[in-house]
Write a structure and sequence with these properties.
This protein has about 400 residues and is an alpha+beta fold. The protein has 22 helices and eight strands. This is Cyclic nucleotide-binding domain-containing protein.
Length: about 400
């Protein structure tokens, strides 16, 4: 029949004019025929259901509760929540809003109900992250604050919280979200490398560092990241690779210097070597980079070979003590440890880098092999070494 709606208990239509829908539902609720009332409500059109809800909102609380149950059974959770607004049952209203997917309304209802944690979680689900953060701060829920900060794109702040909480893994994950354009990017990378290395994941730390320098020109040029890479390589026993990293950095940032070959050639004990012997000796030399404050030669330790300074300066002290006497300062072209090349004796002075130093190094073992395989050169070196030593003795005696 036109203008009717609803179904009876036997599945037939209930002849209910639109304006009588609320009356029919109310009648069924009052007679505790909740299931039939639910079926009738489900059978109404959208406009009729909206009208019914508006009219129901004007009814007394007791009657509205019966209608709320109908709406809940019909899965109209949003309509049920709105009917219950203002009845003092905010927690139930909030749950209904959650069921209807209205998380922002749910959060506000949870706040009214005094359930701040559930309110903050609902704010998060609604995407209202600043509101969620505000509630979490009031609660002092630091872990939730950190998670919220990550979602807000503030990973460095989140990492600081995780650090305070002692959650190294979460701190690393948060720091991984710091973008290359962030002014604290290098700081974040260095912190990640430290944490991973301490936890035994040095390989992963190197991978993080490699990704950082490939994604940012600033990071690629940063001296602290270069030093960190060298440190991690040394941790893995890769001394040669570490030295190569530092040398590339030194070559990229320094002004041109005189050839290491010319410095080596100028040392008195090598002054009579032939071109071929001199080239062979030079091929034994390895370039090393020493950071300010690092010790090149330790007094009393076995001599390890010759250092020829190409860049930077070193200070020579009478010993390793803080109050040791300062004996000399040496710079490019000067050399250290030549006596250890031909004599097995402890180092007689303590040498420390004053500035970044680049030097040629010839190890004693390599030099002994050179002498064994270059007989003529060995004779010339020993003769000149003896003459040089005698001249030093005379100078001290006079």
């Amino acid at each position: 029949m036109p203008g009717t709606s609803g179904q009876g208990q036997g599945g037939g239509r209930i002849n209910t004019p639109p304006e009588g829908a609320l009356r029919a539902v109310r009648s069924l609720v009052e007679s505790q025929q909740t299931e039939q009332a639910t079926q009738l409500y489900e059978d109404l059109g959208d406009a009729q259901r909206e009208r019914l809800r508006r009219e129901a909102a004007q009814r007394p609380v007791r009657e509205r509760r019966g209608l709320v149950e109908v709406l809940r059974r019909a899965r109209d959770f949003l309509g049920a929540a709105k009917l219950m607004e203002g009845d003092g049952e905010d927690a139930t209203v909030a749950d209904l809003y959650v069921q209807s997917g209205q998380y922002l309304e749910a959060a506000e209802a949870y706040l009214r109900a005094g359930e701040a944690e559930r309110a903050a979680a609902a704010f998060e689900r609604a995407g209202a992250l600043e509101r969620a953060l505000e509630v979490y701060r009031r609660l002092g829920a630091r872990e939730s604050i950190a998670q919220c900060l990550v979602r807000l794109g503030r990973p460095f702040e989140a990492a600081s919280l995780y650090r305070d909480l002692g959650q190294a893994h979460a701190e690393v994950e948060a720091l991984g979200g710091v973008k290359p354009e962030d002014p604290r990017f290098v700081e974040a990378v260095l912190r990640m490398c430290t944490l991973l290395d301490v936890e035994g994941f040095t390989h992963r730390a190197l991978a993080v560092l490699a990704d950082a320098v490939s994604s940012s020109e600033e990071a690629r040029a940063d001296a602290t990241l270069v030093k960190e890479k060298a440190r991690l390589l040394r941790r893995m026993g890769m001394e040669a690779e570490a030295e190569a990293v530092l040398l590339r950095r030194a070559a990229a940032t320094s002004t041109p210097v005189a050839s290491g070959y010319r410095f080596l050639k100028a040392i008195p004990i090598f002054s009579e070597l032939s071109l071929e012997d001199m080239k062979d000796l030079y091929r034994l030399a390895r370039q090393v980079v020493v950071e300010p404050g690092d010790v090149l030669l330790e007094k009393g330790a076995p001599g390890t070979g010759l250092f020829v300074l190409m860049e930077g300066t070193v200070d020579v002290f009478s010993g390793p003590e803080q109050d040791a006497r300062h004996l000399n300062t040496l710079g490019p072209g000067q050399y250290l440890g030549e006596i250890s090349l031909v004599q097995d004796a402890p180092v007689s002075a303590h040498v420390r880098a004053r500035t970044p130093v680049r030097a040629l190094r010839i190890r004693r073992a390599d030099f002994e092999h050179f002498l064994d395989t270059h007989e003529a050169a060995a004779l010339r070196i020993y003769r000149l070494f003896t003459q040089n030593l005698a001249a030093r003795v005379r100078a001290l005696s006079s």
